[in-house]
Amino acid sequence: MAAIQGLRGTGQFDSDFRPKNYRELYTLLEPNGSAPLNALLSMTSSEATDDPEYRLFKDELPDRKLTVNGAIGNANGTSITVDAGNDNLFAVKGTMLVNAATGEVMRCTADATATGLTVERNIGGTSHSIADDANLFISGSAFEEGATSPTAISFDASVDYNYTQIFRTSYGLSNTLSATNLRTGDKEDELATKALKLHMQDIERAMFFGKRHETNGTSSQPTRYTGGLVNNITNVIDRSSASSTMTEDQFDRYLIESIFAFGSKQKIAFVGAKTAGHLQKIGKNRWQPTVIDDTYGISISQYHTFAGDLMVHLHPQFRQIPGMDDAMIIIDFPHLKYRYLDGRDTQLLRDRQAPDADQVKHEYLTECGLEMTQSKTHTYIKNWTTLA
Q1: Strand pairing partners for 68?
Q2: Least CB-packed of 62, 189, 271, 329 within 10 Å?
Q3: Crossing angle for the helix pair 22-29 and 187-209, to the nearest 10 degrees
């Protein structure tokens, strides 16, 4: 049985899995239903929040590369103007720089300013000119004997946030209908099941397509919307500019340079029908995908690629949503978390009818959101209509 990084257990949903609320009950009953993302999130480390606006810190190591602003024809010029950027401040006195295009090695002779470098040129090599927009990268440091310590440098994590969103799905029936003997069975039980499916479907769609926003934030009753994957993933591959075509070689490059460039070497891809067909064609020829039934309750196909393992699931709702049949959303689960307002995870609230109403009315209510601790580890591929 294949393991999936970031999940609590190593087995499938079975009788030993005890749901604590209706969200987990739904994923137990229908893990391959309309909300497979929530089925997997229910097995991750969900976390409560005591505020509908929850903040998180995102941190990553800097690239420490600089871009030259203006060509330097003189191979001995020691003053270099660079584009403004935070990475420039890492070039303190003693820092080594390399021109990625020419291989020239330089050493900073003074701490960098916001847009300027003072360097010793052409260390151990021949003279080179520097082109406009040339990329310089930091390659270590070098200090003379007896030197004092360099200028201290540090960097802070960035602060991000998201909201919990209130989802409500009601169902009801008259007391007359409730007392009627129907051949199709208990009508209230049928409505309860359908309402829970719709409720989880709504949450699933918000997790994918929601846009972070707050309306009337200064009022006593604001409306909040949680930000979903599509609107928060920064690693987006849009094939519309290439006639919606992608070759196997191009997909291979994306696997190496983009999809598995950051994060785990095992990721889950939710795909539309057309994209599933493309992967199946590639898999038949080269990857030999392994079909894994009911792993964590979800039926997936595992593609062993040279860049990493892609766990693929055909998302049922992508068949229903326009524009998602040729899409793929690749998720790195250790960097994704289900957040719910404390005491407001999915629950069934009974008897919501008016006091004088000759009916019963119940509702499912959830106040939850999505937390993405890193955005570069996830990928959104869209408009992949044709496999060339």
Answers
A1: 82
A2: 189
A3: 100
Return the SS3 of 179: helix
Helix (H) or strand (E) holding 96: strand 95-99
Please list, in sequence order, all residues whose beta carbon lies within 8 angstroms of the beta carbon of residue 97, skipping any fewer than 6 positions away. Answer: 66, 91, 105, 106, 107, 108, 117, 119, 136, 137, 138, 139
CA-based nearest residue to 156, from 92, 224, 86, 204: 86
Backbone phi and psi for residue 45, each to the nearest 5 degrees, phi listed first? -80, 80
Contact status, residue 383 vs residue 326, Cβ threshold 8 Å:
yes
Structure tokens of 203?
């949450």
Distance CA 270, CA 257 (A): 20
Concatenate the DSSP letters of all residues of 249-276 into one string.
Answer: HHHHHHIIIIITTSS-SEEEEEE-HHHH
Whether residue 215 contacts residue 223, with contact meaning beta carbons closer than 8 Å, is answered with yes
CA atoms within 13 A on the CB side of 171: 16
* Residue 339, pLDDT score: 94
Q: What is the pLDDT of residue 163?
A: 95
Tell me the two tokens of residue 98: 């390399």
Confidence of residue 86 (pLDDT cuts 50, 70, 90): confident
Give the bridge partners for 329, in sequence order: 270, 380
Report the alpha-carbon distance of residue 1 to residue 191 in Å, rounded: 36
Do the beta carbons of residue 267 and residue 311 sit within 8 Å?
yes
Mean pLDDT lowest for which of 97-106, 180-189, 264-273, 299-308?
180-189
CB contact at 8 A, 272 and 319: yes
Residue 99 has pLDDT above 90, yes or no: yes
CB of 65 within 8 A of CB of 135?
yes
> Across the chain, which distance is largest between two alpha carbons, in Å?
95
Cα angle value 114/119/123 (rounded, 5°): 145
Kindly report the pTM of this predicted structure.
0.80
